[in-house]
Design a protein that fits this description.
By secondary structure, this protein is an alpha+beta fold. It is built from 10 helices and 14 strands.
Length: about 450
């Protein structure tokens, strides 16, 4: 931050690439080479003694591998260095308690990506209103969809420029994600009101002032079960069901160890495209909703949730089998679809952009305590959507999610906040180290 009240901000912009079949094959080979490079680095790291795990030694090993293996040489040299930096950063995050240990990347379960660390190698030019051109290493000039004004040409400078990019493949094909750095005026402190938010399944985001945010689509089926495809239209759901049945039938005809046929792979690709469409719609709703919330409110209070424990299976063991396993599995799917953690992450950086604050409070009993009288009486939470206080002197009843949102805001006002997420979006305090991973000893 400078003396003039300016602050550097980094953000990304993703655009779809228009690649030919030959260029797609080259990009796929580079992505698999990057994944193989990561796995080789991981094996080398585990094999070497701790005192010899240095950045220089790893760089020498990468250079030697690219000389001996032609497959690894298909990956550009700078992209190989980016794989090394990302791998080392993953271990640092593990040692500081922010992530688990890095592991091998499987062929079919890992996202395919290639990094372009230097922005000056891109040579971005806008062709016309809808298309731009970008230079990709070992491929050449490629068109991409121009949906946002980028700092290129005369608009680029030291404080407003593209610092790099990453090529990412999903079910819809290859995309390029630009890393953009810009200099903006520091936002003034948020002057909006305070609000508590309870993330739920019945109401996606219930606010303490009844300004609830819903999807606009019924989140549950008429029989009360969770709708796993709520972001798809009825025609798209029918098509998805037909494709899943076709895939199951064709898979049953395949012999054990036999290679997947092109017809079955094509069916899998169609299923992935429909799933990706539903994911894009959900992410679009999250961005629009969080933008409205951050522009309206100055302080947003949420619960400190451990989502990983909330979505654990209730199956149990053979000796002690679980109860209501199917009901709990449906609830887990609904929680996973709502992506509460991603909503909090988006709120964090958008609030920082508008000068607001995100505060977390303890989660226990927020949905069981009455927000009117303050007592926690057993049986007040009658079902997923209804709260009726069983205190004879209260008899307060309302929506259960709205009641929890009021309790969340009250906890913040009486000083029970456990963490205030900083503007950078990183955790407010470093996790306490217990036992170092084996590779770090």
């Amino acid at each position: 931050m400078s003396e003039l009240g300016l602050v550097k901000r980094q953000f990304g912009h993703r655009a779809r690439l228009a690649l030919s079949p030959a260029e797609i094959r080259v990009m796929d080979d580079q992505a698999h080479a990057a994944r193989t490079m990561w796995n080789c680095l991981h094996a080398w790291w585990q094999m070497m003694p701790k005192d010899k795990r240095t950045l220089a030694a790893a760089d020498a090993a990468i250079r030697q591998a690219r000389k001996e293996l032609d497959f690894l040489a298909e990956l550009p040299a700078q992209a190989s260095q980016a794989v090394l930096k990302t791998y080392v950063r993953a271990w640092v995050n593990c040692w500081e308690g922010r992530a688990d240990e890095p592991n091998f990347k499987a062929r079919f379960r890992s996202a395919m990506s290639v990094d372009i660390p230097q922005g000056r190698d891109l040579n971005i030019v806008r062709v016309h209103r809808r298309w731009g051109m970008v230079n990709l290493p070992k491929i050449g000039r490629v068109r991409f969809r121009w949906t946002k004004d980028l700092p290129v040409g005369k608009r680029a400078g030291t404080d407003n420029r593209i610092t790099g990019a990453r090529l990412v493949k999903d079910a819809l094909g290859w995309h390029i994600a630009f890393r953009i750095q810009t200099l903006e005026a520091q936002p003034p402190p948020g002057q909006g009101p305070e609000v508590g938010i309870d993330a739920g399944v019945n109401i996606p985001l219930a606010l303490s002032n009844k300004d609830h945010q819903d999807h606009g689509r019924p989140p549950r089926l008429p029989d009360g079960t969770a709708d796993r495809d709520k972001w798809l239209t009825p025609k798209e759901k029918a098509k998805l069901l037909k494709l899943e049945r076709q895939a199951a039938h064709r898979k049953s005809l395949r012999k054990q160890g036999e290679k997947t046929s092109r017809r079955l792979q094509h069916t899998y690709d169609q299923i992935k495209q429909l799933r990706a469409k539903a994911t894009r719609r959900a992410l679009d709703w999250q961005h629009k909703t969080t933008t409205y919330l951050t522009r309206t409110y100055g302080v947003i209070v949420v619960e400190q949730l451990n989502i990983t424990n909330m979505v654990k299976s209730a199956r149990g063991t053979i000796e002690q089998p679980g109860k209501n396993v199917k009901t709990k599995a449906g609830l887990n799917r609904s929680i996973a679809q709502e992506a509460w953690g991603r909503t909090v992450t988006i709120l964090t950086y958008k609030l920082a952009r508008h000068g607001g604050r995100l505060v977390k409070v303890p989660a226990p009993n927020t949905s069981r305590r009455c927000s009117a009288c303050g007592f926690t009486v057993p049986g007040s939470r009658e079902d997923q959507a209804t709260f009726v206080c069983k205190n004879p002197d209260c008899d307060f009843q309302c929506n259960a999610d709205w009641n929890a949102a009021r309790n969340i805001l009250h906890l913040y006002r009486i000083g029970h906040a456990i963490v205030e997420v900083p503007a950078a979006g990183r955790r407010g305090r470093r996790a306490a180290k217990t036992v170092k991973p084996v590779a770090a000893r």
